Amino acid sequence: MELKFAHIIVFFLLATSFETLMARKESDGLEAIELLKEFQCNGKLSWPELIGVPTKLAKEIIEKENSLISNVHILLNGSPVTLDFRCDRVRLFDNILGDVVQLPVVG
């Protein structure tokens, strides 16, 4: 009985330490949108409506809505990324279920 209880506690501790299944608020990307205005990127710059959408579908929508985007990268939420800025790139952060969990923005 004690072993099962220990497994349950370890499971809950691990589950609460992961953030990959949590969706982020739309307001998390507002600073990035302000930065985009300074760089004068053209076309649609953010897609708040894609939070919770499957990443493969989101990629198709982004490429359709802004033809200037040539690099759409699908990454697991929390993956390390470079800090360089590019007007032709959008990073889609997904969870283990394959859904977008962060505001997709150009950069």
Walk me through the structure.
With 107 residues, the chain is of the alpha+beta class. It has a single domain, classed as Trypsin Inhibitor V, Chain A. Helices cover 35% and strands 11% of the residues. It is built from three helices and two strands. It has helices at 2-17, 30-39, 55-65, and strands at 71-76, 89-94. The protein has a two-stranded parallel sheet with strand order 1-2. The radius of gyration is 17 Å and the shape is elongated. The termini are far apart. The model is unreliable at 20-24 (pLDDT under 50).
Domains, number: 1
Largest sheet entry: 2 strands, parallel
Helix content: 25-40%
Span from first to last CA? 52 Å
Residue-averaged pLDDT:
80
Fold-level CATH name: Trypsin Inhibitor V, Chain A
Assign the structural class, choosing from mainly alpha, mainly beta, alpha/beta, alpha+beta, or little secondary structure: alpha+beta
CATH class equals Alpha Beta
Sheet with the most strands: spatial strand order: 1-2
Quick take:
The protein has 107 residues and is of the alpha+beta class. It is built from three helices and two strands; from the N terminus they run αααββ. The protein has one domain: Trypsin Inhibitor V, Chain A.
